[in-house]
């Protein structure tokens, strides 16, 4: 399990990064560049590349690794687990994050996915048919409980440091917003109990659209409502305070809605997701920081914005844009090769924009 002392010691072992590269999360610190493991086919060759990359990342200044039980048919979690064991780094210095919500395959895509889901999840009672949306998504407590156990086994860890409920807005395709809030509260109650048992350190919500669209959008979920449900879950579980500590959402120069769309009510009026999360004490981990590679190409960042960003390559400037947003804890980038890893790590040697310069990119 990640600890305060180990993360601060990890930070002190590196002196080549810019001043704000390591940032506070809970009592400890984490790198503001994190490693994602979503991309790639479920093959042995990709496993090998990820293993080498994760080991090198951990040994060279990245202590945030993000995965999910469904990524690459559970292979991403398993290779992260092997890399944690093989890297010359204290396990307690690494924030390991994973997610549950999408029904995962096991090692490869089955010839008949529908039959696989039916046989492995519906017929066994792990998932109730009425809780399954689009045949692939479930956030009911029983399913999440099962998925957390699978993740602990895949990662070969005693504790998951940050466990996300994965894309809850998917449920809005077949049920009401209030019903989704109710199910989140039930699952948060489960996660509060798993936190009390030591199986997870913190939990959060990993999203794609729901926190960065306006309230009248079909995919909208209120971040204040989610926080309120987490507090209710803590009361129900009897924990001293809620273990909800983070959100994950896309953020990059072309997807800046989490900063620009003021969709979340507060005592100060409507706020953006980034602002509300910061005021609520939630860490923010950005996904799609390079737009799944699109922003690594020359000319992909508008010239007036690129001129304000430090970095030697488009990828570094794009990553530093995401790291510059107020309230961002760590920007995740999918990296499965050592070459890309070196470029992404070097982004951390440059200072991100200050708040005034960042605001100026939207004028």
From TrEMBL:
PANTHER family in the cross-refs: GH17980P-RELATED
Organism the protein comes from: Halomarina ordinaria
This protein's name: Aldo/keto reductase
InterPro entries according to UniProt: AKR, NAD(P)_OxRdtase_dom_sf, NADP_OxRdtase_dom
Domain of life: Archaea
Domain NADP-dependent oxidoreductase intervals: 34-208
Pfam family, one: Aldo_ket_red
């Amino acid at each position: 399990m990640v600890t305060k002392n180990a993360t601060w010691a990890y930070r002190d072992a590196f002196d080549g990064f810019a001043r704000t590269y390591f940032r506070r999360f809970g009592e400890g610190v984490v790198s503001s560049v994190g490693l994602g493991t979503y991309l790639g086919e479920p093959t042995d060759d990709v496993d090998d590349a990820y293993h080498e990359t994760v080991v090198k990342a951990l040994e060279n200044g990245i202590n945030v690794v993000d995965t999910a039980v469904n990524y690459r048919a559970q292979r991403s979690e398993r290779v992260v687990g092997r890399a944690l064991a093989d890297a010359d780094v204290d396990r307690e210095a690494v924030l390991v994050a994973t997610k549950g919500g999408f029904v995962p395959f096991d090692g490869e895509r089955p010839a008949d996915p529908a039959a696989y889901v039916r046989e492995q999840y519906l017929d066994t009672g792990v998932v109730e048919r009425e809780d399954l949306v689009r045949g692939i998504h479930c956030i009911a407590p029983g399913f999440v409980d099962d998925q957390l156990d699978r993740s602990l086994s895949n990662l070969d860890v005693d504790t998951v440091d940050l466990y996300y409920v994965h894309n809850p807005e998917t449920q809005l395709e077949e049920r009401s917003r209030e019903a989704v809030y109710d199910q989140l509260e039930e699952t948060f109650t489960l996660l509060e109990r798993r936190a009390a048992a030591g199986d997870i350190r913190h939990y959060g919500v990993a999203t794609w659209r729901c926190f960065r669209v306006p309230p009248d959008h079909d995919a909208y979920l209120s971040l204040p409502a989610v926080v309120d449900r987490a507090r209710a879950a803590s009361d129900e579980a009897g924990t001293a305070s809620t273990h909800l500590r983070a959100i994950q959402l896309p953020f990059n120069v072309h997807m800046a809605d989490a900063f620009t769309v003021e969709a979340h009510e507060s005592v100060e009026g409507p706020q953006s997701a980034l602002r509300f999360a910061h005021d609520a004490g939630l860490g923010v981990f950005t996904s799609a920081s390079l737009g799944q590679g699109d922003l690594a190409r020359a000319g992909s960042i508008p010239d007036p914005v690129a001129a304000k960003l430090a970095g030697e390559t488009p990828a570094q400037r794009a990553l530093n844009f995401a790291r510059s947003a107020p309230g961002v804890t760590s920007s995740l980038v999918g990296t499965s090769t050592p070459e890309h890893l070196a470029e992404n790590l070097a982004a951390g040697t440059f200072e991100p924009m200050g708040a005034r310069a960042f605001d100026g990119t939207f004028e």
